[in-house]
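Good day; I would like, with your permission, to put a structural problem before you. What I wish to show you is a protein chain and, alongside it, a tokenised description of its three-dimensional fold. Thank you for your consideration; the sequence and its tokens are set out here:
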Amino acid sequence: MVQLDGDSRMALLAHCVGLSLNAVHGWERRLQAWAHADVLAAHVGLDMTTTWTPTAASYFGRVTKGRIGEAVREAVSREAAERIAGLKKPQMAEAAAELVAGTGWLPAVLRTPFPEAAAPVEAGGEPAVDAEADAEPEPEPQPRAQADDAEPEASEAALRMAAE
């Protein structure tokens, strides 16, 4: 590894992180994994709007008419959602894709939940200090989903489990 150039080392590190991080949202209740992935996404500045666009084939044709309406309401307006509400699902999906195009709207699962929590990192690995920052501390970011009976753990063991 010492003989690798900087780009190769970073590619190897990215590969290792990719193998160890699993925050797929599904039937499992892995809140610590999701919270860890959300923090990581915020710190690296993950922005899915640069690589993915909701289309009739990639999203709108695969969700319910209710979800299509919610997406159009969020991205465009309530009036636009009402205009396409009476259409059959294939036509509604196509119309929604046209209406949402260019808005930067993403389904909640693809959104980076709290990008303001990411602190810029300097070359030495230390967080950059903002001299103009307010002295008042910001509230701790919360994970996207929390079960009523689950308490997020901040222990080292929980973080290791999150990276399974």
About this structure: The chain is about 40% helix and 0% strand. The helical segments are 6-20, 31-44, 65-75, 78-84, 89-100, 156-162.
